[in-house]
Amino acid sequence: MKFVPRALSVALLVALSVCVALAQGDRVFSVPLDHLKTWSEKVIVSLNVEITGNSTVHKVEADCEMHFGAKAPTYNGDPPGWVLEPMNLCIIAFPGKSTQSNKDWEDFGKSLKGAKVRAEGVPRIWPEHLVGGGDSNPSHALELHPLTKLQRGNQVYDFTSYIYAPEGFEGGVGSETARRILTDTEVNVTEKDGMVEINFDSGRIGNFTTLHLSVKSDSIVQAAGGHRMDGEVNLGRKQKVGVRLVTVAGSQIDKTIAQLKGKKGRRLTFDALVLFSLSPEALYKAARDSRGQQVVVQDPIQLIVYGQPEVEQ
Questions:
Q1: What whole-number distance in Å separates Cα of residue 302 and Cα of residue 181?
Q2: In terms of Cα–Cα distance, which of 190, 186, 204, 196 is closest to 78?
Q3: Is the same domain home to 209 and 301?
Q4: What does the pLDDT look like over 191-223, one tens digit per residue?
Q5: Terminus of the chain with fewer CB atoms < 10 Å: N or C?
Q6: CA neighbours within 13 Å on the CB side: how many for 38?
Q7: Measured between alpha carbons, how far is residue 22 from residues 17, 144, 201, 202, 206 in Å?
Q8: Domain range for residue 219?
Q9: How confident is the model at residue 303 (pLDDT cuts 50, 70, 90)?
Q10: Residue 308: pLDDT band by 50, 70, 90 thresholds?
């Protein structure tokens, strides 16, 4: 009889610990420090991967993409998986074809299973699928999203021109969830022996949404594969949140940003489809200061921007 209360108390303690962790919304994963350094210096990076599978082509209201699951032999983060995501395949014809067909893209995906390829794209750090499911969605915190190029042998598939906001898609993240991601997310890092443990504390998260953005021309910096800049998100009622923005070389929005760069005192305001990510710059800066201790990441959110705005004074 004496052992029953003790067993129950242990069980309750374990259950309580699990409930507290879930309530806090903690998501913990790790990324090599040298990878964060590279990603903080570039917008587009390259990676040798093996394709593990592909999804179907999503409908436009779901994001219009197809996902490729992948594993990278040179990446030792935890979880180890990657997902590659080219934009707008649901409305763009497969290369060499005159009309769009989901089957063409899905057959292409199936032909790549097990293939070793060179992939290029924006390294997106986002812990939505730390526990994945299936060959097209392995457990991962890292994506090349958008995927800009894929090379198998001598065959190169360039997806750069596919990077834009498709008509009829404003993102699946609602305004209140977006506000909470921008204002309530807390991120801490601890660096030890070249590995960075990232603790992401937030509520419900997601991928795409549409936001009202503002960019000052003086903050625009060119990086390999695009531009980075400081921006503000207008959440209404005079609430503005500072955030880091990224545009991808070859997209229309990046061309507009390039024209604005260097013009003092100019401002770009626009509504745009954006993709949530953690900022590799902010993560790397905090990790350098860690020295084995937990460090709070300042301004951890990065938005990958799609769309073509009008320039305002």
A1: 11
A2: 196
A3: yes
A4: 999 999 999 999 999 999 999 999 999 999 999
A5: N
A6: 13
A7: 9, 28, 10, 10, 17
A8: 175-312
A9: very high
A10: low
Checking if the pLDDT of 17 tops 70, the result is no
Give a yes or no: residue 110 inside a domain.
yes
Q: Provide the domain count of the chain.
A: 2
Residue carrying structure tokens 């067993």 = 7
The 10 Å CB-count burial string (b at 16+, else e) for 209-230 is bbbebbbbbeebebeebbbbbb
Residues 205 and 78 in one domain: no
Identify any residues that bridge with 276 across adjacent strands, giving them in sequence order. Answer: 303
Contact between 105 and 126 under an 8 Å Cβ cutoff? The reply is no
Rounded Cα distance, 162 and 165, in Å = 9
Please compute the mean of the pLDDT values over residues 60-76 and round it to a whole number. 96
Q: Please check whether residues 37 and 153 belong to one and the same domain.
A: yes
Which of 162, 196, 220 is the last residue in one of the domains? 162
Asked, for residue 245, whether it belongs to a domain, the answer is: yes
Q: What are the C-alpha distances in Å from 192 to residues 24, 130, 189, 196?
A: 24, 21, 10, 6
Cis peptide before 146 (omega within 30 of 0): yes
The whole-angstrom separation of Cα 53 and Cα 222 is 34
Cβ neighbours for 4, distance < 8 A, ≥ 6 positions apart: none
pTM for the model stands at: 0.89
CATH number of the domain enclosing 122: 2.40.50
Domain boundary among 162, 184, 205: 162
Instruction: Summarize pLDDT for 134-173 with one digit per residue, the tens.
Output: 999 999 999 999 999 999 999 999 999 999 999 889 999 9
